[in-house]
Amino acid sequence: MFADIVHFTELSVTKTPAQLVEMLDDIFSGFDAAADKHGLEKIKTIGDAYMAAAGIPVPCAAHAERVADMALEMQELMRTTYATRYPALQLRIGIHCGPAVAGVIGKRKFTYDLWGDSVNIASRMESHGLPGRVHVSAAVKQRLAGQFAFESRGRIEVKGKGAMETYFLLGRLGGHAERAG
User: Fold this and answer.
1) In 3D, which of 35, 179, 12 has the Cα closest to residue 88?
2) 130 is a domain residue
3) Mean pLDDT, to the nearest integer, of 156-164?
């Protein structure tokens, strides 16, 4: 899962570096708490982007469900808790599921990271997504069918992948589904 704060570059012009770091720490600390709650591994932050995964480093059968629940909670945090503090901010989230390798490479400044086409597709789901929405691949929809509600986005051109069928994650089925945007 990749999450990115929409229009962060424009916002950074109006804030000092210290104010930006304070804001990101506030938001990402909330995301860290949600990651702990849902059993996700925070991989890293990259500027205003947040990367997390489930099933790594310890495999779990419900990895996709955990990520979906986390993404929905992140959007809810942005609409409620953070909306009063940072009213102009919205989040774009992308999710894909599939194989990946995690670890540390290199000889200096060790950083835990993920690699694989699944990681690339998750990143593309975020970058091709819409503010306030959770954008997912067909693999995620298939994996979560019967548990979550989705809205078809149709086929879109995805950089480096060609035309892909994608969806917006709306919520859990059973009375918890609501539009994310």
Assistant:
1) 12
2) yes
3) 93
